[in-house]
Amino acid sequence: MNKKTKLTKLVLSFAMLGLMAGSAVAEELSGTLAKIKDTGVIVVGHRESSIPFSYYGEKQEVIGYSQDYSNLIIDAVKKELNLPNLQVKYLPITSKTRIQLLNNYTYDFECGSTTNNLERQKTVDFSDSIFIVGTRFLVKADSNINSIEDLKGKNVVTTAGTTSEIRLNQINSKDNLGIRIITPKDHGDAFNALETGRAVAFLMDDALLAGERSRAINPAEWKIVGEPLSYESYGCMLRKGDTQFKQLMDKTIADAQKSGKALESYNKWFTQPVPPKGANMGLEISPKMVELFANPNDKALD
């Protein structure tokens, strides 16, 4: 065997070792990705009435701005695990159940209208942010309510298990406003309390309020008022310490935001008519959202 032949064999041997090592690394999955690979199933949490983020369409399919991100993440998982026929199951969740059901492995991740904050980071992780909101009030257009001070001694509704509920309780107690707080389980029930007169104001994230207003018989009867009590960022939620899955989610979200795909999704859901009633949220993109798309990050705003 001449030197050239020996050298060729040596190079080929190292190449084969490299391929084997690469293959071994690729198979060293952990956390959610390992679970999905083993079962061939991914379970996706979603909201039922968080218009226009995550809600049911006319055919009971899950649609919305946040669902667009969910779909991108599902596609990325299929590609990463080489599972083009991955079975996708959907699970409806509420503000109260979403963390518990995630951590007991009932579902694998959710992109809805979940605020990334420091308290929640103690028990779950969040992807790069997908939306930034301000917390405000929805009231009758002909009311004289313009701020939280105008709500002293009145009934105010906000969805149970949300950061808005926590914030309203804090301000109510601190400023001794005597507000009677109603806390139904989801945003649709909260808006119903407002529409039927059981409450004079609905405190929630402004984009969600725009979504609920769009479902009214006459959306023009309602207005969003007040300086934001807080700004919050929504992220997709996953189990704590799941580094591999978070990296995949973050890359998928950042790619969408930097490529312009996320802006297309924003315009589709917030500046144009959307199902089921063809209402328009009428929310032009904010400077905070423009900045987020230019510089994707997973920062909590509290």
Automatic annotation (TrEMBL):
Q: What CDD domains does the database record attribute to this sequence?
A: PBP2_GltI_DEBP
What are its GO cellular component terms? extracellular region; outer membrane-bounded periplasmic space
The record, for InterPro entries, names: Bact_solute-bind_prot3, Solute-binding_3/MltF_N
Localization of this protein: Periplasm
Keyword Flavoprotein (UniProt): no
Q: What SMART domains has UniProt attached to this entry?
A: PBPb
Q: Name one Pfam family in it.
A: SBP_bac_3
Q: Which residues form the Solute-binding protein family 3/N-terminal domain?
A: 41-273
Which segment of the chain is annotated as a signal peptide? Answer: 1-26
A Gene Ontology biological process noted in the UniProt record is:
amino acid transport
Report what the protein is called: Glutamate/aspartate transport system substrate-binding protein
Organism, as annotated: Gilliamella bombicola
Taxonomic lineage of the native organism:
Bacteria, Pseudomonadati, Pseudomonadota, Gammaproteobacteria, Orbales
